[in-house]
Design goal:
This protein has 251 residues and is an alpha/beta fold. The chain contains 8 helices and 10 strands. The relative contact order is 0.19. The structure holds 2-amino-2-deoxy-6-O-phosphono-alpha-D-glucopyranose.
């Protein structure tokens, strides 16, 4: 146990470059011993620079992803499968489509699963994570409310992958992408807090002043469901990767 470590960079690009190097080192060490690396990946603004850098490393340095296994962190619900607004489509467009992944190694939650099948779908997703040997590196963003994935305030420490109702603040943050607040899905599917904490290493990315207060509270503790990111203090190998604005340090 112990507080997450904190790494502060002058800007998000430098931070993302450092995390990309860490991902590359993980992939290479796993490839060297013939084992796949398992990555848990979010969607959003925060990981964009990391994804750009990984795509560049694939293209220019030949970083191999052939044996990498990917689990998407969360998904909006309900949305038609393949809608360009699903997190799965966005993750494919920004990252996965540009790598040499085996499609059988790419896992995402189903934005169109029927309500009565959602619980079984989420349980099966956890089974797939276990069958892959667990997540080696879980990348996270953080919501202004301190949510991780779509674990909104009130999410329990031991929550599992499940269908959740979105907080109004989260829906408001998505309104621009959907054209109107009412067009934003009311719910989502997300790895639970307990599921996320089972990853062997967790790297949370937060950039810009809007994230400062959530980051400060998450690091200050105590771990509390009112701020789900605070549970990362109960993980032995979590790191917050910040720019100076999110860290609250002078430039
Ligand atoms: C959304 C996503 C989260 C993401 C968070 C922060 O609610 N479901 O997984 O981490 O927002 O997003 P961003 O990185 O765009 O600020």
């Amino acid at each position: 146990m112990g507080r997450p470590s904190v790494a502060v960079y002058p800007d998000p690009d430098l931070a993302c470059r450092a995390v990309a190097l860490e991902v590359a080192a993980l992939l290479r060490s796993r490839a060297a011993c013939g084992r796949p690396a398992v990555l848990g990946l979010p969607t959003g603004e925060s990981p964009r620079g990391l994804y750009r850098e990984l795509v560049r490393m694939r293209r220019e340095d030949g970083l191999p992803f052939r044996h990498v296994v990917v689990f998407a962190l969360d998904e909006l619900w309900p949305l038609p499968s393949g809608s360009p607004r699903t997190y799965g489509s966005i993750l494919r467009a920004e990252l996965l489509d540009h790598l040499d992944l085996d499609p059988r190694n790419v896992h995402a939650l189903d934005s169109a699963v029927a309500p009565h099948e959602a619980a079984a779908h989420c349980a099966a997703y956890e089974d797939r994570i276990r069958a892959a040997g667990g997540v080696d590196l879980q990348i996270l963003g953080i919501g202004r409310s301190g949510h991780i994935g779509l674990n909104e305030p009130g999410s329990a420490r031991d929550s599992r992958t499940r269908l959740v109702r979105l907080a109004e603040e989260s829906r408001a943050a998505l309104a621009a992408a959907f054209g109107a607040p009412d067009a934003v899905p009311a719910a989502g599917l997300t790895l639970g807090v307990g599921t996320i904490l089972e990853a062997r290493r967790i790297t949370l990315l937060a950039f810009g002043p809007a994230k400062r207060e959530a980051v400060r509270r998450a690091l200050a503790g105590p771990a509390d469901p009112s701020l789900p990111a605070s549970f990362l203090c109960e993980h032995g190998d979590a790191c917050f990767v910040l720019d100076q604005a999110a860290a609250g340090t002078p430039r």
